[in-house]
Structures are given as structure tokens and as C-alpha cells.
Design goal:
single chain; binds guanosine-5'-triphosphate; binds magnesium ion; about 170 residues; alpha/beta; globular; six-stranded mixed beta sheet
Length: about 170
């Protein structure tokens, strides 16, 4: 890892946001460590995930910032977004309110984030289709209207997780 750090061509900062319980921390741990926790605790403040990836012969160190969805656990907003090149906006397909709140998160992102940040809308928990409250098409239409990339994922089943992160990271490099 140390050797990789010295030879790393780029540091890529990305932020992951969305309501509490949508699966932000599990998406990150699935991507960076291939780990999933059914009993994960709400995030307090900010946590970090790292993953070294190779894109077209460039070595990139992805630094992924994970923040609390719960307002009372959130850290200062402006520093969270500073320098971020990518953002992942996450909702839970089984809870309509988390999709409705995407508007609020997008507003915060546009207020504090870099103008040319790559934003991907992620509809998580696709494995729970029997209790689905948000159709895939609704997410897609919203993303198109707002000019965002879109993907349905399952951190539990490891579906589209790597694809979603890589889409966000490789568009830039
Ligand atoms: P905060 O830190 O409070 O903002 O929440 P979070 O968005 O980080 O959610 P977290 O990753 O802690 O996941 C919340 C719950 O959802 C946990 O019980 C996870 O096991 C579960 N979960 C996360 N992703 C999935 C998924 O893809 N499918 C299913 N079925 N459960 C998931
Ligand atoms: Mg969390």
C-alpha cells in the first residue's frame, strides 16, 4: 500500500450523501473492502473509505467520504464538500421519503459542491423488490431531468456497487 501511495498519479475525493439508513456506509464498505453488515450502526460525523484503482494506466487513490444521514450527527457541511470531484446521492427503493429527500440533498450539493462535480444517483436495496416503493423508471426520469448518472444497486447482493463507483470515478479521468 505504501509503495502504491508513492506511485499514485491522482487522489480522487468523492462524497456519499443521502438519508439515514439508505445504505451509504455499506455501499462504501462493499466497494472498498467487500464487506457488508446487516447490523451496521448509524454513522456519526465523518468516516473514510479508500480504494486504489487503475484507470487507463493511471493509478488513482479514491478517497470516499461517508457522512451521517442523521442531521444531529452531521459534521460541518462546507469542509465535507471541499475538493470533491464526485458525489453519490443515495436513496432506498423501499422508502419513498428517501427518494423525495433527494431534492434536498441535491440542493445542498449544488450549494456547497464544485460546479463540475460528477453526480451519480444511486437507488440502493434492489434486492428488496417485494417492498419496493420507488420504481426504477422514476429514479431514471429524475436523474435525466437533473443531468445525473443513475444506477440501481444492492450492497447486500453486491449488485452494481463497483459499477456505480467506477462510473463516478472514471468519467473524470
Ligand atoms: P447513516 O450512517 O445513518 O446515514 O446510514 P447509512 O446510509 O450509512 O446506512 P447503512 O449503510 O448503515 O445501512 C442501514 C441498514 O440498511 C443496515 O441494516 C444495512 O445492513 C442495510 N442495508 C444497506 N444496504 C442494503 C442493501 O443493499 N440491501 C438490504 N437488504 N439492506 C441493506
Ligand atoms: Mg452510515
Amino acid at each position: 500500500d505504501d509503495i502504491f501511495d508513492e506511485e499514485c498519479d491522482y487522489l480522487f475525493k468523492a462524497v456519499v450523501i443521502g438519508d439515514s439508513g439508505v445504505g451509504k456506509s455499506n455501499l462504501i464498505s462493499r466497494f472498498t473492502k467487500d464487506e457488508f453488515r446487516i447490523d451496521s450502526k448509524p454513522t456519526i460525523g465523518v468516516e473514510f473509505g479508500y480504494k486504489n484503482i487503475k484507470v487507463r494506466d493511471k493509478l488513482i487513490k479514491a478517497q470516499i467520504w461517508d457522512t451521517a444521514g442523521q442531521e444531529r450527527f452531521r459534521a460541518i457541511t462546507s469542509s465535507y464538500y471541499r475538493g470533491a470531484l464526485g458525489a453519490m446521492l443515495v436513496y432506498d427503493i423501499t422508502r419513498l421519503s428517501t427518494f423525495v429527500n433527494i431534492k434536498k440533498w441535491l440542493h445542498e450539493l449544488r450549494e456547497f459542491g464544485n460546479e463540475d462535480m460528477v453526480i451519480i444517483l444511486v437507488a440502493n436495496k434492489s434486492d428488496l423488490s417485494h417492498s419496493r416503493e420507488v420504481e426504477k423508471e422514476e429514479g431514471k426520469v429524475f436523474a435525466e431531468k437533473e443531468g445525473l448518472c443513475f444506477m440501481e444497486t444492492s450492497a447486500l447482493q453486491n449488485l452494481n456497487v463497483e459499477e456505480a463507483f467506477l462510473q463516478m470515478i472514471t468519467i473524470i479521468h
